Amino acid sequence: MDEGKPVPPGDPETRLPEVPTGAEAASGVAGREPSAEAEGPTGTGRTKGTSDDGDYELSRPLAAQVRAGAHRDGDFELRRPAASAPPEDGDARPGTRPGSPGSTTADAVSAGTAERSAPEAALPDPAGAPHTASTDRPEPLHAGDPYGTPPYGEPGPWAPAPPVQHPARAAETVAPGAVPPAAAPQGAAPMPDATAPVPAESASGAPLPANPAPYPTAWQNYDPWASGSPFQLNGTPAPGDERRRGRRRRTLVLGAALIALVAGGAGGVVGAALERDGGAGDIRLPQAGPEPTGRASDSVAGIAAQALPSVVTLHVKSTDAEGTGTGFVLDGRGHILTNNHVVEPAGTGGRISVTFNGGETAAATVVGRDAGYDLAVVEVEGVRGLRPMPLGNSDNVQVGDPVVAIGAPFDLAGTVTSGIISAKERPITSGGEKGDGSDVSYVDALQTDAPINPGNSGGPLLDTRGRVVGINSAIQSAGNGSAQGGQAGSIGLGFAIPVNQAKRVAEELINTGRATHPVIGVTLDMNYAGDGARVGSGGANRGPAVTKGGAGDKAGIEPGDVITGVDGVRIHSGEELIVKTRAHRPGDRLTLTVVRDGRKRTISLVLGSAGGN
What we know:
- Helices cover about 15% and strands about 25% of the residues.
- It is rod-shaped and about 175 Å long.
- The chain has eight helices and 26 strands.
- The strands form six sheets. The protein has a six-stranded antiparallel beta barrel.
- By secondary structure, it is an alpha+beta fold.
- Strand 3 and strand 4 (about 75-80) form a beta hairpin.
């Protein structure tokens, strides 16, 4: 190729003109003086110079990218400047020296360690006098800096700021070696063309990387005065207006969601309070919340829950009468205990219907009944899952013990009342509607203040453990002063048959259909007005007053004797003597206090037995 002729930058066969070595540059032997040619911001940006062998011209983009080359007189190598001097080709600042802060060096020539500065920079001559820039360089468009502020004045104790770099935009087309006016301030060195071709291999034959990154540090990407999106110190673009607006929108959305969440929670609390306590409209009164339904087993509620499944309501109908009473289950075979006066209207042709606590109904038949004890047993068939009521011991009951009564007063099934035992061994009689005394009941009763009303008859009287201690049978009426089983309201005086007596009678009624009565074997004068029970002078139908061979006869009782006590307990009437006697079983031994001719004596006897009615 011809020497001094411009070489296309992309030709792989191109060999660059010889560059003076460091020794030659230092001695100035050949008098090679570089010249600079600047064509303005939109020029080609080529560097020219002369040598002994001829002129040469280097393209600025090529000079910024070529690593190595060859000359006919020898090899040379172009290197990037050090990190302290960014690899940018351009005009040198006036008044600076190569290698000093503020100067810009295009390439460093390794052969001979000589350095080539930009065409406009001054180079030292052998004598040490600096060369000046060419006279055809245009004057700067701005006035000189009177304060000598870098990079226009002398270098200070600080390092100069890196030159401003402007990355090419995808939407713009930039000519190789040229910098758009908007991106390059006046007087700044033009950027190297990153799109210029690079030789495929060096002079030594080693392959070169294509388009090496020309800016090794982040500072070289930082331009606070650049138009468009600026760069941050790490080299990444700073957030633009659109990104900031998006961040603000996200902040507003999150803030609105947080406010809505807080407002919703507060509204729920306020709404719940208004719903509970009432708002501006209707009044809502405070109320306790739900509680566990279970109760202590010895409480009234606990006793009722345990006993109600075993309590039944009886409806009795006949051709001329009907009634309602209560009963309770004795066993799993369907036997139910109740009062005699409850089932008596049924007679032999009536009907008895039993209704259980769950609402199931079943027909019942009479197994046996006894008017003297006012007890009866009926039986239901075809019913399974019966729960027998546990029986207690009435001898263990003390005055003041709490009790619970369950029944169907006035046909109100499942009614529960409570009270205490107000008295024990209270002799009462009930019935006697037939006139002959065959329907009179004699009961050594438990007295209670638990409310008992018509319909409670035959129902259980329970202790605190849910066991039966008595069968509710009668109440004291305020009308005639006697215990009645008829329609009367409770005045707090109720009477129950002790369970010990009821148990014996119920067993006999279930087993034989009839109950036996314990007897002394004497006829009493029921019209005697004195204190105690007097033996009559003649029996019924003018028979003997003392049954021959009976218990009284064997013990020595005579007509006209007055019995004043049984087992040490004083009695005041014939009814009381009968009640005390029937409180025992046939065969039991009694000790009687007898007054004869004004003198007291004690007689012991064994009770006989008689059939019930």
